[in-house]
Amino acid sequence: MPKLGVEQLDLAGQRVFLRVDFNVPLKDGRVSDDTRIVAALSTVQHCLKAGAAVVLASHLGRPKGKPDPASSLRPVAERLGELLGQPVPLAPDCVGPETEALARALGPGQVLLLENLRFHAEEEANDEAFARGLAALAGVYVNDAFAAAHRAHASIEAITRFLSPAAAGLLMSRELAALGRIFEQPQRPVIALLGGAKVSDKLPLVQSLLDRVDGLLLGGGMAFTFLASLGHGVGRSLLEPHRIEAARAALDHARARGVKVRLPVDVVAARGVGSREGIRTVGIREIPADLMGLDIGPATVLQFSEALKGAATVVWNGPMGVFEQEPFAAGTVQVGRAVVGCGAFSVIGGGDTIAAAQAAGVTGKIGYISTAGGAFLEFLEGRVLPGVAALNDAP
Predict the structure, then answer these.
(1) Containing structural domain, residue 234
(2) Cα separation, 166 vs 296, whole angstroms
(3) CB 290 within 8 A of CB 257
(4) What is the DSSP letter of 119?
(5) Could you report the per-residue pLDDT of 8-42, keeping only the tens digit for each?
(6) What is the CATH number of the domain that holds 68?
(7) Number of C-alpha atoms within 13 angstroms, CB side, residue 23?
(8) Which residues contact 35 (CB under 8 A, 6 or more apart)?
(9) Which of the pair, 201 or 250, is modelled with greater confidence?
(10) Is position 390 within any domain?
């Protein structure tokens, strides 16, 4: 069911509890990358223009359930104030009488940022009493933190038992619409491009996608476990022996469903990530015992690019190799360019994949970029996300 959106609410005179994802990197007491803050601005500004007061809530880092000055949201309040062009005071806590008084004092068009939710262990425990304390700060709940929607935390799930209506923010709605477009009525053929290091991180995703896509391209370190399941030697390449049977079963499932799975046919191999000597391109049947595959080779790039040409929808998650190191970046860069060059509607997600798209210079041509990591993967796996399920359905 589509979810109730913030734009469907009458917010005039309301106090809005807006759950955002301000889990941003800090350096020397300042925000070093404000991408996630900027992403939430449209929802914050919508609420303010509609005549609401806004109580913002977020986590930052892993303070382990107790106050930690290094994880304070003060730098975030300062940067948000600069972006909004108005003061954004930081509450001393996210619950309690003093914070409640600050929230009640807010007038229309004003903003208050709560201190780090994870300064309380009750947040990650999805504690009802803590959630009730958060709910006391406002009269309407809006969640714009899709990146945290896979967590059943108090500010994400339990709070909706005490605060209604519960609506999706503009960013959340855009995420759900883009990802829903992949599965509900996608333009076909649908091709998934998966990479990254560990096959154990991606096996549930592979198994889910096999029931939804028309083709699957597998690269990165995870591909070697699939290659080993077919009897190939992989040298010193990344391998998860305890996942070989599961990888073989996934390939059998793909054959049964008629889904074409493409694996690397050649790799760029070296003695290690830091090695610059003896780098060579070899076929997958010829990987020397003392070398490891660190990127897909040119023949694989060509095959993957040809497979993408027929796609109408492409889902990409994970690099094709150790793209952060220049000798092993070509496969990721060239396949990334093939993703946007095929003319399909493309969706990418996860920090490494976004970085890979940036390395390929294609971020401006991607159909939709999800900043979420775990939530993006769990959505693609077909799991119910607690933060989405907790929101009211659209009328």
Answers:
(1) 186-380
(2) 46
(3) no
(4) G
(5) 999 999 999 999 999 999 999 999 989 899 999 99
(6) 3.40.50.1260
(7) 17
(8) 24, 371
(9) 250
(10) no
Element of type H or E holding 15: strand 15-19
- Give the count of domains, the chain: 2
Q: Which of 192, 225, 168, 229 is nearest to 40 (CA)?
A: 168
Active-site residues, by number, are: 36, 198, 351, 374
Residue 370 lies in a domain: yes
In angstroms, rounded to a whole number, what is the distance separating the alpha carbons of residues 66 and 123?
A: 11
Within 10 A of 80 (CB to CB), how many other CB atoms are there? 26
241 prior amide bond cis, ω within 30: no
Asked if the structure places residue 386 within a domain, the reply is: no
The tokens describing 295, both together, are 């990127």
Tokens encoding 259: 């889904």
**Residues 246, 137 within the same domain:** no
Does residue 197 lie in a domain region?
yes
Q: Hunting for tokens 């990888």 — which residue is that?
A: 247
Q: What angle do CA 65, 140, 34 make, to 5 degrees?
A: 55
Instruction: Give the pLDDT confidence of 341-369 residue by residue, as tens digits.
Output: 999 999 998 778 888 999 899 999 999 88
Q: What is the pTM of this model?
A: 0.83
What is residue 308's predicted lDDT score, i.e. its pLDDT? 96
